[in-house]
Design brief:
single chain, about 300 residues, alpha+beta, five-stranded antiparallel beta sheet, four-stranded antiparallel beta sheet, 6 helices, 17 strands, about 20% helix, globular
């Protein structure tokens, strides 16, 4: 076994291995936001056609991804700020990744990085076992993030069809490896569709679509009613990571939808949450998307 560099790191990996089922959001102009939230004011946004998984990623789907990766489940990835896309620079065992030499990594990223006009995240030093993994590339600093992909199978949260507990970095890495995307906050809110309606402020209606407090664990995905686009569990069960930063001055990433341990009055489609990219918890998961092949 040897470390996989550049495009070899994702060769042979396909989203079909995960067992996801998608629904389509048509291109158009949509209303998002809510006057109740100062950080998410009402506005209209134009969205290109895209696809989103019908349910949050469950433990079986994550297990399928990890099985496809085998022992080479540690990656180095970097981000383009402009298009909010992550690219995998290297994949291997943790030991192989720790031994990669800086000149080699610089050469790989120089070959893989997006066009010159794209902007890169500015960061300080990151390290894997003391090895520097952030460096200058031309005129910009590239944030290179090491991620070891593992399954967080905690007691009461390890059912096959319960949501997989994932942090942002893990979600971004799986997306980059398997040719998927993370929805932006606006894409996510458009996909929430009729869940933005006032009727879901009524607890009786909310509980038809959302698993929430009082509960002592996540629920199997897909058991609550779907919204008009065909998506389940967009409210409650687990918060879902989105691609956006919480704000331009923070590296925290957006979370949407609320979770199983949130009170009904705090579960709203327009409510914005956030968290640290490397942080995960018993109420945080993911939902993958993909660029619609039919345009």
């Amino acid at each position: 076994m040897s470390i996989l560099l550049g495009t070899d790191a994702t060769a042979g990996l396909n989203a079909s291995a995960l067992g996801l089922e998608f629904a389509t959001i048509p291109a158009g102009t949509y209303d998002v936001g809510d006057a109740e939230y100062q950080n998410n004011p009402p506005r209209q946004v134009a969205i290109d056609r895209f696809e989103l998984a019908k349910t949050p990623t469950d433990n079986t789907q994550l297990a399928n991804a990890l099985r496809a990766l085998g022992n080479q489940n540690t990656v180095l990835m970097f981000e383009s700020v402009q298009d909010r896309r992550w690219t995998i620079a290297a994949r291997g065992t943790r030991e192989e990744i720790n031994q990669i030499e800086r000149p080699t990594l610089m050469e790989i990223i120089s070959q893989l990085k997006p066009s010159e006009e794209n902007q890169f995240a500015q960061v300080g030093e990151l390290a894997v076992d003391g090895a520097l993994q952030a460096f200058d590339l031309g005129s910009a600093a590239v944030r290179v993030v090491p991620v070891t992909l593992e399954h967080h199978l905690l007691e009461k949260f390890n059912g096959d069809n319960q949501p997989a507990l994932m942090n942002y970095d893990e979600t971004a890495a799986i997306a980059a490896l398997f040719g998927l995307i993370m929805a932006t906050e606006e894409m996510w809110e458009v996909a929430s569709g009729d869940l933005r309606d006032q009727r879901y402020k009524k607890e009786k209606e909310l509980r038809k679509v959302a698993h929430l407090h009082p509960a002592d664990r996540t629920a199997d995905v897909g058991k609550k009613e779907a919204n008009w686009f065909g998506f389940h569990d967009m409210l409650g069960n687990v918060w879902e990571w989105v691609a956006n930063r919480a704000n331009p001055k923070s590296n925290n990433r957006g979370l949407r939808g609320g979770s199983w341990c949130i009170f009904p009055e705090d579960v709203r489609a327009a409510l914005r949450g956030d968290g640290r990219p490397a942080g995960w918890g018993i109420g945080i998961g993911s939902r993958f998307g993909r660029q619609d092949s039919q345009g």
